[in-house]
Amino acid sequence: MAEAVANVARRVNAIVEDGGDTLDLSNCKLITFPDGVFRVLKSVSDNIRVVLLAENEMKSISSKLFLNFTQLRELDLRGNIISKLPDAFLKMEHLTSINLAYNSFSIFPDKLTEIATLERINLEGNSITEIPVEKLSNMPAMKWLNVKSNPLDSNTQSALQSLNNVETES
C-alpha cells in the first residue's frame, strides 16, 4: 500500500514541477480518486488535458474529477469496475475521447450522448445490451464507437450499421 501511495505522489508531483498536461495514475491500485490530488494540483488543474486512470480498482468516479479538471480532452478509465457516470460528467465541455472499456456498465451511459465535443467512445468488454443509436447519430463530433464484446441484441447490432459518419466496432 505504501508503495502505491508513493507512486501516486511521485506522478502528481511531476505534473506540478514539469507543468505537463497529462495526469497518469494508471496501474496505481486506486479504489477511488485520491482527494489529496485535487489539492496538490489546484494550481495546474486548468492545464490538465488528459487523465489516465486505467487498470485500477475504481467502482465509481468522484464528481470532483469533472468539477476540477474542466479542460479535459481525454479520459481513460479502462479496466476498472465502474458501472455509471456521475451527473457532474456533463461539465466536460471539451472532452473528445473517453475509454470505458472493460468496466461494469450494463446500461449505455446516456450522459455520453450529451457531450457535444465527444468524438471517440470505447465501451468494449462491458455488459451492454442496447445502444441509443438515435442519440449517437445526433452527436455532432462523433467519429468512432467501440462496443465489441458486449452482449448487444440483434436490433441494436443492425441499428449500429445505420450510423452515418461514425466508424463502429461491434
From TrEMBL:
Keywords: Leucine-rich repeat, Repeat. Signal peptide: none annotated. This is Leucine-rich repeat-containing protein 20. It comes from Pogonophryne albipinna. Pfam families: LRR_1 (PF00560), LRR_8 (PF13855). PANTHER family: AGAP008170-PA, NEPHROCAN. GO terms for cellular component: extracellular space. Gene3D superfamilies: Ribonuclease Inhibitor. InterPro entries: Leu-rich_rpt, LRR_dom_sf, SLRP. The keyword Repeat applies. Transmembrane segments: none annotated.
